[in-house]
Amino acid sequence: MGFADIFKKSFLEGFSAGELGFQEILVVLFITSCLALYIYLVYRVVTKRTFYSKNFNIALAMLAVITAAIILTIQFSIVVSLGMVGALSIVRFRTAIKDPMDLVFLFWSLSVGIICGAGLTEIAILTSLIVTIGIFLLDRMPVVRVPQILIVQMQDADKEEAVLEIVKKFSKYNKVKTRNLSGKTLHMIFEVRPAEESKMVRELGEIEGMTSVSLMEHDGEVTF
Prior knowledge:
The protein contains eight helices and four strands; from the N terminus they run ααααααβαββαβ. The chain has 224 residues and is α+β, with helices and mostly antiparallel strands.
C-alpha cells in the first residue's frame, strides 16, 4: 500500500463518522419543522401589508426541512456529498424575487436547514430569534416621513399660481412631478408632506374652476 492509498483511506475515514440513529434523525427533523413553521408564520405577518404569495411561503417552510435532510445525508460520507453536489449543480432557479425581503427569508430558511442538519439546533433557534427581532425593529423604526401624492385637476390653467400658494402654505416640502395641459384643463401631480392634510384639501377644493383634489399615500421609494 503506497502513500497515496494511505492518504486516500484516511481522508475518506475522516468523513465517515458513525451512523445516525433513527431517534436522532427524528429529533433533528422535528426541530427543523418547528422552525420552518415559525418562519412560515413570521413571513405571513411581515407581508400582510404587501403582496403575499402562499405558495412561496409554503416553499420556504419545506425548503428548510429538505435542506436539513440533505445535510443529514451528506455529513457522514464524502462520497455521498460529492454525489449530491453533482446532482444539485444541474438545478437552476429562475423564479424572480419580487421583494428583497423574500431573499432574506429564503436565506433564513436555507440557513435553518443547514444548521439543524449539522446538529447545531441551538444556533438555529438563536439565529431565528435575532432575525425576527431585527426584522420587526427595523420595519418599525422611523427613518423619514413618507411623502404623499397630491393630484389636482382644474378647468382653468390660470389658477396654477393659486394652487402652488396653497400647497406651499401647508407643505414646506413640495415638488411638482407632472403637469398635463389639455386645452384649458390642467392636471398636476405633487409630492408633498402636508402638516394639515384635510385643511389643504378643502382650501384647494374651494378654488374656482377646481374639478377634483386627491391626496394619496405614497408606498414607493422615498427620496431624502
